[in-house]
């Protein structure tokens, strides 16, 4: 077969594959986000009420703060995840715009240990270990008696403490909402070159499918699956999304650990320049190269131009406008700039 024939053959096969994909996708109609969330929440709560947990405490070892979930047998006296008090069940509630609908989600999570170090914000990078399980319903019939159980099945595990995850746009939404609730720990190098981690943040999150993969099946995870993640936060890496020289976590103006690019027309608490509307959006400082909207780049305003050589001020040393300004750092005050 000559080269032209091979090319034509390849184009034909590729076209057929694309056509099949398009046809398959066109026949699939996504479920309603709100209705699916109600189903997911019910399954998550039933799982938490019908399973108990065993926590492994083994400081300095890879299995420290591992969690094992086990179905409570009929007549069993084990205390469920829902009712146990060693690690009180906590919730985080958020509203998510899915385009055609907006859903108010409740995320259940457990703090096995908060951690002793730095706290990430939801746009940082984290070095973390995890184990993932999906929740599903299983129906069985024995002696004409049909029963339905809510169970969990592990789909993945990663114990490598050097694995980096991007909380802003690189992971599912549930991760970026829960990791800021934890802190990093400490670590030391052993004589054999391995690293021991201690006092790191560890916990469990129970995620509705709308904060995970929703209608998309992912590897062995069925579509519309609520997920359980047991997580360990070993270390973090600060980011600078807009490249203005100020780490994004320092542009979290209300210090709550969460920053978002909000939907059109919604005022953003992490935006300095309230008059800076672009296409109806208030751009938060961590995505805005000109935080105060004065026409001067933030990266320019935080430089010490009188020094030789010129350098960028550390954040704590960025000057204000003094008596002529309002006490804000000069990159946040549109009346003050170099």
What are its keywords?
alpha+beta; seven-stranded antiparallel beta sheet; single chain; Chitinase A, domain 3; disordered N terminus; 338 residues; 15% helix; 15 strands; two-stranded antiparallel sheet
Please give the share of residues in helix: 10-25%
Structural class: alpha+beta
Q: Would you count the extended β strands for me? A: 15
CATH-defined topology of the domain at 33-237: Chitinase A, domain 3
- The level-1 CATH class of the domain at 33-237: Alpha Beta
Q: How would the global form be characterised? A: globular
Oligomer: single chain
Unreliable sequence segments: 1-27
Compute the separation of the termini in Å. Answer: 69 Å
**Could you state the order of secondary-structure elements as H and E?**
HHEEEEEEEHEEEEEEHEE
* Major β-sheet profile: 7 strands, antiparallel
Overall mean pLDDT stands at 87
| Beta-strand residue fraction | 25-35%
Q: What does the model show?
A:
With 338 residues, this protein is an alpha+beta fold. Among the domains are: 1-26; 33-237, Chitinase A, domain 3. The chain has helices at residues 3-26, 33-50, 173-178, 298-301; strands at 51-56, 66-71, 90-97, 102-113, 125-142, 145-158, 164-166, 186-189, 195-198, 201-207, 227-237, 277-278, 281-282, 303-304, 311-312. Strands 3, 4, 5, 6, 7, 10 and 11 form a 7-stranded antiparallel beta sheet that branches. Strands 1-2 form a two-stranded antiparallel sheet. Strands 8-9 form a two-stranded antiparallel sheet. The longest helix has 24 residues, at 3-26. The chain starts with a helix and ends in a 26-residue tail after the last strand. The model is unreliable at 1-27 (pLDDT under 50). It comes from Flavobacterium solisilvae. Keywords: Isomerase. One of its GO terms (molecular function) is isomerase activity.
């Amino acid at each position: 077969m000559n080269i032209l024939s091979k090319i034509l053959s390849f184009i034909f096969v590729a076209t057929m594959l694309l056509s099949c994909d398009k046809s398959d996708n066109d026949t699939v109609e996504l479920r309603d986000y709100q209705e699916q969330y109600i189903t997911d929440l019910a399954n998550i709560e039933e799982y938490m009420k019908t399973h108990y947990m065993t926590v492994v405490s083994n400081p300095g070892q890879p299995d420290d703060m591992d969690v094992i979930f086990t179905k409570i047998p009929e007549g069993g006296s084990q205390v469920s995840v829902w009712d146990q008090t060693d690690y009180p069940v906590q919730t985080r509630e958020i509203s998510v715009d899915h385009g055609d609908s907006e859903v108010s989600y409740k995320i259940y999570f457990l703090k096995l240990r908060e951690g002793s170090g730095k706290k990430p914000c939801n746009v940082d990078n984290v070095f973390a270990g995890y184990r993932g399980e999906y929740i599903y319903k299983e129906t069985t019939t024995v002696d004409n008696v049909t029963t339905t159980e809510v169970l969990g099945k592990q789909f993945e595990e990663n114990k490598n403490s050097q694995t980096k995850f991007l909380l802003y746009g690189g992971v599912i939404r549930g991760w970026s909402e829960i990791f800021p609730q934890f802190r990093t720990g400490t670590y030391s190098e052993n004589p054999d070159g391995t690293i021991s981690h201690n006092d790191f943040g560890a916990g469990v999150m129970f995620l509705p499918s709308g904060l995970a993969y929703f209608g998309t099946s992912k590897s062995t995870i069925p579509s519309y699956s609520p997920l359980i993640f047991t997580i360990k936060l070993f270390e973090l890496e600060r980011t600078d999304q807009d490249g203005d020289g100020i780490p994004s976590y320092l542009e979290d103006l209300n210090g709550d650990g969460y920053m978002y690019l909000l939907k059109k027309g919604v005022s953003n608490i992490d935006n300095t320049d309230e008059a800076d509307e672009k296409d109806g959006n208030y751009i938060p400082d961590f995505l805005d190269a000109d935080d105060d909207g004065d026409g001067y780049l933030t990266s320019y305003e935080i430089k010490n131009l009188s020094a030789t050589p010129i350098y960028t001020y550390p954040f704590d040393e960025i000057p204000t406008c003094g008596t002529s300004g309002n006490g804000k750092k000069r990159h946040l005050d549109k009346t003050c700039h170099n």
